[in-house]
Amino acid sequence: MFGRDRSLTSLLNDTFVRGVLFQALMAIGLLLSVNWFADNTLNNLANQGKTLGFDFLTRTAGFQISSTLGTWMLDYKVGKSTYIDVYLIGIVNTFIVAFLGILAATVIGFTVGIMRLSDNLVFRWFATFYVEIVRNVPLLLQLFFWYFAVLRALPSKRDKLELVEGVAGINITGLYLPAPIISDGFVYSLVALVAAVFFTLLVRRYALKLQAETGQTLPVFWIGLSIIIVLPVLVHYFNGGPLGWSLPEFKDTGSKLRQGYQSGAGMVLVPEMLAVWLALSLYTASFIAEIVRAGILAVNRGQTEAAYALGVRPNITLRLIVIPQAMRVIIPPLTSQYLNLTKNSSLAVAIAYPELVSVFAGTALNQVGKEVEMIFMMMMVYLTFSLVTAAFMNWFNSRVKLVER
Amino acid sequence: MTQPQNAVTQADDHNKVVSMRNVNKWFGQFHVLRDINLSVDKGERIVVCGPSGSGKSTLIRCLNRLEKHQDGDISVHGIELNNDVKNIDEIRREVGMVFQHFNLFPHLSILENCMLAPIWVRKTPRAEAEEIAMHFLTRVKIPEQARKYPGQLSGGQQQRVAIARALCMQPQLMLFDEPTSALDPEMIKEVLDTMVELADDGMTMICVTHEMGFARRVANRVIFMDEGQIVEQNEPEAFFNNPQSDRTKLFLSQILGH
Amino acid sequence: MVRKLPGTATKKIKAKKPIPSAVDAQAGYVRSEDAPLLPPPPSEVGVTGWLYKNIFASMSDFSSISAALKSAFIAVLTLLILYFLATQTIGLLDFAIFSAVWSDPEGLKRQACWTVEQGGALPAGWHAACWPFIQAKAKFIFYGAYPTDDLWRVNMTYAIGVFLLAWVLIERLPYRKMVGALLLTVYPVMAIVLLTGGAFTISTGTIGGATILGLALISIGRLGKAGYITGALGDLSLVAGVCGWVVIAFAVVLAIFSIDFDLEAIDTRDWGGLLITLVVAITGIVASLPLGILLALGRRSEMPVARFLSTVFIEFWRGVPLITVLFMASVMLPLFMPEGVNFDMLLRALIGVTLFSAAYMAEVVRGGLQAIDKGQYEGADAVGLSYWQSMRLIILPQALTHVIPGIVNTFIGLFKDTALVSIVGIFDLLGAAQSTLADAAWSTPVQGLTGYLVVATIFFIFCFGMSRYSMYMEQKLNRSHKI
User: Fold this and answer.
1) Closest chain C residue to A28 measured between Cα atoms?
2) How far apart are CA A306 and CA A118, in angstroms?
3) What is the value of ipTM here, to two decimals?
């Protein structure tokens, strides 16, 4: 390549050299721009009397945050907890609503997706209306709908709507549920649960072996379900029932100001969280439904026909032939939707549910004023989650690739 | 409407592998099968031919309930084909089908493709199922591909695997739905040879195909269908050399001309 | 040898070698007359057939206990869903149409929509839409605080835009590509001038300087083309020539912006409602398309630096929520600019939205590029086209047709996402509607529901329409591939 007689111009014409030159120019251009931006930023900050630094994180935060899982887990106390706690509370609350949302959206989405493919016209219509209406209205609007229109219609603070007599109720201040009180023996129940899962896996191995040797099948699902339910419950009662429940307490006598659900008893899900959960679940479920439908349709009809022609019954066909192939098509866009759901949880800032954006880039930013650092910290959380999800998807795709020539 | 034929033939149904009486089928308004009467004995090889849209595929797909007939009676090996799920299951166990587009399961290996039905339908132990699978893969002459996946095989090999897969259920009747139409020319021979061997071993088969050489070599009867009805059927020599109906003559001139 | 298999129900008949000439009672049969073409039985067609196939088929399997339970369950669920759909539809129609208040002739404002208990004239328990509220606020919802006298400017911009867009979309019309180019270049300049009022203060020096620079670059390009500059510098001079045209175009735009058309200058803070939503969404998509194409090409490039930078850019903007991008744009953009450069709030949001959308657009275009057969690239190379030439003439035209459904889907998503700008203080459709809810003169229990219903309907019409168009395009493209 680098022969003796290469002149300068022919060197410049060489595609490799050109490529290197071009990239070098790009890199230099980028560095210069970054330098320029950084310069401007530092200048502007200096003019405002600010410096860059993360030491604000150890300062105490002086504002109240609604009672949520995050505040409970980190035991948030005004005046004692620091901004790091606030950051962590934001992260916990984001992930709890994302996790619950993913669960609900998956269940609803799969159900609606299957309904879209049903023979039954009523099911198909319902699923189609649901998907088309929910997909074509902005999520923020749906969030407002659930929060303002629906939840505002709940009974007032001094009143309640009983969902389960004495155990669960709801009013405008939130959904009240029993809170678990864990005393000493509870760890045995957990151990029993783990053991039950382990036993189920053993049963499954045995059943596979049995089928391989004699051809008989065992109903592993039902056996496993019974073990997982019965064993921990037995251990639990044997132990004297170490799981207590703190029931929500509702007072409707005495002074008007003190009536209503009392704090300290039971567990409360604030209406903001309920609204975010509902909106996120239903919105994402509509996209998941379409993904599931496309995935099932992607499996060639000939596959089911071949299986039926062999005498394989529909439920086995579904399990062994259709679903494995459909899942290959469904999982990548499904993980994208999970990621979207997590990112969309940031909309909760509009109704002041204390997830990451609302509590850190909203309230805390107003108090501290360190925009660059705080927005950077916030974006890092979302970026990490996105990259982890992308890595998982790449791994999954490479594992389930159909073997071809 | 079913018109009872003479009583003798009805009792004979039990000896027939396939018996179709006055079968009619509609797709919506379209009358796709008209007054089909057909019976097939054990060991017979039937070739069905005809222009596209004539209902040939629909006819054999009705035999294993991949399509439902709305009128008439069908019975396979003495079992009546109706809405009773148990009957359908039994019939499907005894009838094997080979499709135009192979329909192998791409996420399973060749061996697993063949073992699936014996394990899950006949409740065969795994080792025995594997033996059966290898036996039939050897019979279609590709035992060495057992561990590979369908995507790694050529079209001709895939179709032979499809034949082996159907044979692993040891059916009484084999249905072939244009088995070589989707193959490249050089691979058609290997599949046809497999089918000829199968026929020579005594398998009852109904074959929808355009391969007239195969029909001449193997068939007891050639059936010509047009517009949903059976127009003519005869032994192959008589059929090809002396077609009676004008439509048959036209079809044969088109298909044998080039 | 056939082995004995467990589970075979039918009796085994030993296979015997068939005699080819076995007498078959049906051989040698010729049909003498055609079988009649009969109509299908009632269970297949007509109302009963349709009812059966679509509803009752799924509930009629009673062959075993589990199947019967399943059928019963489906039947009950069907009834419940029918009931739910019926009540909701009737409720909605009742709310929006039948029980709604349509006019307020006496100018009572909120009293026109009050029940007797609240002091109005409507019967107790009335709960339906209050349309006079929307009538009063319609201008605000559609145009924001844009001065009423100048609404003709907005309407004209809308009208011309719709006209040009329709021309590009309807297939039988001629010169679609030219109109498309017009739509993407001349129309935005015109729109900006009409909507803001133009007459920006741009020094003649800047315009003059840009013109001179552009002319210089073009002449370099001409020299290079004519062969006076050779070799690598020759290629650079061609690039300079292209840049020259771009600079000239830029100068022309600046010149247009500086002309005083005697239009009232209207600050973007006065824009609002549907106008803002359309401006943000359309600008976002149009501006993100070229950037997205560049990024997609960069990500597929063989040069590691380009590939790395493009990937980082794309993954960054796709990995963070739009709301954080908007926060970043509104809070941090002033920090990134040198002192004294002041950014219009709307412009900050537009920049954020464009960068965000460019990353998604890049992935869509990348999908289109991947879908193109490798043979096309090879063919272009074989004929001797340079990278940029083959991209411009062969690859991108094909890729972009592939990705039109993807682009429309991204646009739909962006259109919905524009609602987020209301959180950073820009009054889009949702924000404008929300601010109307604060008007005490119209305060009624149904104020909120009526307002949100209108906004939801507007969004639905736009998004549903676009998704139908996208599906239509997809089907057309699929059909055209079945060669």
Assistant:
1) C305
2) 21
3) 0.90
